[in-house]
Specification:
Blueprint lengths: L1 H8 L2 H45 L11
Length: about 70
Amino acid sequence: MHRILRFLKSEDGPTTVEYAVLLAGILAVVIGGITLVGGQTANFWSNNQSELDTAFGANSGGGGSGS
């Protein structure tokens, strides 16, 4: 019981909670940013691949995936 009271009186608990909330907020922003930019990046590379395939005539079934 003494340990619980000492923990509640100390400031280690609230500080830990504050850091956890701050970390959760930062993670939410980072994940949101990756989600927004990720789709645009995938489209960008897909378009580049299509243009390169057209430019080099790779659409004739020649492969090119490296396998």
